[in-house]
Specification:
The structure holds two protein chains of two kinds. Chain A contains twelve helices and nine strands. Chain A is an alpha/beta fold. In chain A, about 55% of the residues are buried. Classes of the chains: A alpha/beta, B alpha/beta.
């Protein structure tokens, strides 16, 4: 059983959903993002999503765009990202780590080499935003060979016929994009989410996590109750951004403030 | 010729999944957009097969756009260069002053068929934005144009034109504030407004079916050129030269000639300060295969797969990618891709103006620069067509600036 499957099974037993926080690699610098990654499980992260910075994140809103830009400025590359996860794995062999990003840096690195190195570093799953199932052939083979889950995004626009195709290539869990929009902008209502889930449940036995627009502890609690997990990204990144100095450097507030917010989210999810 | 008689044709691409050759093109978009891309593909296929759609398009192209555009024998420019006989395909005479309206007219009719009420578009030089704002005025549709903040600065006349036409122009400050960033922002808008919005892409790039669809709408340029050259010279041209940013004017004039191997097709990329200066927009000559804006194509990028900023004096060519069909024509060697620098384009801009009385867009000036460079090396019975994709009124501030003139 993979780390992802183990974690969702354990949470199911515990009777609650997962909290999945997001951080951008090297935002605002390698050391700070590694320290944040290391501190996240203790603060209540059940799984962790790490953003692979890309110059042109066309599905992301301004908050993740800025985080990606800070990460790139601080020298984020895939080798640095793998180094970060290897360092994390020295102390934590249980918390699943998922990479989220765009295809071009992965292709530039080499798809097979990417999957091998990601797997060796201790990464469990991949979300490649601009790689629909129709274009995923090579990646699926490389990922499967290296024991990596390919986590699929499902959107409100995904109709039933397409849902079948999308889920036939999914593993790990399903990421439900709760709004038609970019990250960190608007939020779906609980009613929208309640209405969306039965369709997914009918189509898959995989756990479902909800993302896009989850900002508050209340929203995280609702999403993790309605589905099996809640992804919180832009809300944490904007807190992080708010602690940086004028030159976008970390300050003494950076870690404590982000972790405090994470603890509040976790408390709500666990209540 | 029927389709099944053309199995060896170079004009049959892309395949059903939108690929040209070995994996170029395709559909690389987030899941939220995938169903929309597929719907668009179906809608375009249906329109393409509908004679009523063609009839409507032909009507607007003739009476509104002003087609056909003339094929002009550039006598003084020919005499100046010595060598090849130079013709100009006068796309700058279209309504709104560029080839952009050919595609925009086709897509706006499609958007209407699809029942969309709101149009979003990206623009670089503003030519596509102006064309889009124009048809939105004509058909009373809401129009939102994304334009890089840098381009807003250097293309003020076009920004004002768009506003006069009733469009909302949103400056994009991300990245270098040029066409690439405008494209990202237009895609974000589309994702957020899928229910009523049509994304009107201005070039032969983006996810399938855009590259093929925009090419089809622009192929009227090459079709007319073929007929007109037949009338004037009784044969095919020998060389066709067109400027390449995303590549829509070039694709439009190239495509009808792909199966005529005697016709040399030359795409002129913006070399900026020089192909090896690091400040260039020559995606085919200095880029590598990669994935951005929904397609796999040649992109300017660093060793980590991060897209690098392009540079060109011409806002319309200032893009680090190129349409996937051009990448394919490059890989199979059917078309040649070369560069012209900012300075060469500026010289050609003035040369065309002085010898022919035709002020070309800085984009088109790149094609003139390369054509006039090779013309003297070609025999006097060589027929060379330069695609004058747009007129240069919008560029006079930029040119004045570079010539040290204060207006």
């Amino acid at each position: 059983m993979s780390r992802i499957a183990r974690r969702f099974a354990a949470l199911k037993k515990a009777g609650r959903g997962a909290l999945i926080p997001y951080l951008e690699a090297c935002d605002p610098d390698f050391e700070t993002s590694l320290a944040l990654l290391r501190a996240m499980p203790e603060a209540g992260a059940d799984l962790i999503e790490i953003g692979m910075p890309f110059s042109d994140p066309s599905a992301d809103g301004p908050i993740i765009q800025l985080a990606a830009r800070r990460g790139l400025k601080a020298g984020a590359t895939l080798p640095r990202l793998f180094e970060m996860v290897r360092a994390f794995r020295k102390h934590d062999n249980e918390t699943p780590v998922i990479l989220m990003g765009y295809l071009n840096p992965v292709e530039a690195y080499g798809m097979l080499r990417f999957c091998e190195d990601a797997s060796h570093a201790g990464i469990d799953g991949l979300i490649i935003v601009d790689m629909p199932p129709e274009e995923a052939g090579t990646m699926l083979a490389c990922a499967a060979e290296n024991g990596l889950d390919i986590i699929r995004l499902v959107a409100p626009t995904t109709d039933d016929k397409r849902l079948k195709l999308v889920l036939s290539h999914a593993s790990g869990f399903v990421y439900y994009v709760s709004i038609t929009g970019i990250t960190g902008t608007r939020s779906a209502s609980d009613a929208d989410l309640e209405a969306a889930l039965p369709r997914l449940r009918k189509a898959t036995d995989l756990p479902v996590a909800i993302g896009f627009g989850i900002r508050t502890p209340e929203q995280a609690a609702a999403a993790s109750r309605i589905a099996d997990g809640a992804v919180v990204a832009s809300a944490l990144l904007s807190t992080l951004a708010g602690t940086l100095d004028a030159k976008d450097r970390a300050t003494a507030d950076t870690l404590p403030k982000v972790l405090k917010q994470l603890r509040e989210l976790a408390a709500a999810v666990r209540a | 010729m029927t389709d099944d008689m053309r199995t060896n044709s170079l004009r049959n691409g892309p395949n059903a999944s939108g690929h040209f050759g070995d994996g170029l093109g395709g559909r690389f978009v987030a899941e939220t957009l995938m169903p929309l891309i597929l719907e668009l593909d179906d809608a375009y296929k249906a329109a393409k097969a509908d004679p009523a759609f063609h009839k409507e398009l032909v009507f607007y192209l003739k009476d509104y756009v002003g087609r056909p555009s003339p094929l002009w024998f550039a006598r003084r420019l020919t005499e100046h260069c010595g060598g090849a006989k130079l013709y100009m395909k006068r796309e700058e005479l279209n309504h709104t002053g560029s080839h952009k309206l050919n595609n925009v007219m086709g897509q706006i009719l499609l958007a209407r068929r699809m029942g969309r009420s709101r149009i979003v578009a990206e623009t670089g030089a503003g030519q596509h934005g102006v064309a889009t704002a124009t048809v939105c005025a004509l058909f009373d549709m809401q129009c939102v144009i994304y334009m890089g903040a840098t381009d807003v600065e250097r293309q003020q006349p076009n920004v004002f034109r768009m506003k006069l036409l009733g469009a909302e122009v949103i400056p994009v400050t991300a990245g270098a504030g040029t066409l690439k960033d405008a494209m990202n922002e237009a895609m974000r808008d589309w994702v957020a407004n899928v229910h009523d919005t049509y994304f009107l892409v201005g070039t032969v790039a983006g996810p399938h079916p855009y590259p093929a669809m925009v090419r089809d709408f622009q192929s009227v340029i090459g079709d007319e050129t073929k007929t007109q050259m037949q009338e004037k010279e009784g044969r095919l041209p020998d060389v066709i030269v067109a400027a390449i940013g995303g590549g829509s004017n070039a694709m439009g004039i190239f495509h009808p000639f792909l199966d005529d191997p005697s016709v040399r097709l030359i795409g002129v990329e913006a070399a900026g300060h020089g192909l090896d200066s690091g400040k260039t927009a020559a995606s085919i000559e200095r880029g590598k295969r990669g994935v951005m804006h929904g397609n796999r194509t040649y992109l300017l990028q660093d060793e980590n797969g991060q897209i690098t900023e392009a540079h060109s004096i011409s806002a319309g060519l200032d893009y680090p990618g190129v349409g996937p069909e051009h990448s394919w024509l490059h890989e199979i060697g059917r078309a040649e891709y070369v560069g012209a620098t900012d300075d060469e384009a500026l010289d050609a801009f003035q040369l065309s103006t002085r010898t022919e009385g035709i002020i070309p867009a800085l984009e088109s000036a790149h094609a003139i620069a390369y054509a006039t460079k090779i013309a003297p090396t070609l025999s006097s019975d060589t027929l060379l067509v330069i695609n004058i994709s747009g007129r240069g009124d919008k560029d006079i501030n930029t040119v004045a600036d570079h010539l040290g003139v204060t207006l």
